[in-house]
Amino acid sequence: MKLMMRKWCWIGLVLCASGPAWAAADGDEKSGSDTKKASAVDADSHDDATKDDTADEDEAPKPPPKKVAKKPKKAEAAKRSSSLDLGLLGSYGASPFTRLGIGLRGGLTLGNTEGLYIGVIGTIFTGTSVSDVRLNSPPAAESTRSTIVASGEVGYDVLASTDFLVRPYLSLGMAYKSDHTCATGVCWDDNGVRPALAPGLQAVYSMGTVFLGGDLRYQIILNTADASAAVISLTAGLRL
Question: pTM score, two decimals?
Answer without folding.
Answer: 0.63
